[in-house]
Amino acid sequence: MLAQHTAALTNAIASLNAQIADTEQKPAGSETNNAILEKESQQQIAAKTELESEFNNLSAVRTQVKKLKSSN
What we know:
Layout: H1 2-25, H2 31-71
Helix pairs in contact: 1-2
């Protein structure tokens, strides 16, 4: 189950990276578009940061599980 969650987070992070790159590459026709694209980009970056944090927590849990298993 942990491996599946890790894989799902990895895929979500990759998807957000692609969305962020796409958003940053969109041509901006007006100030309104710029503001909308900037807000969208910041939301995607925040979501990515949150997922990376969760992913890092899973990695820490996995490391602790390995330590506990090896100490038995």
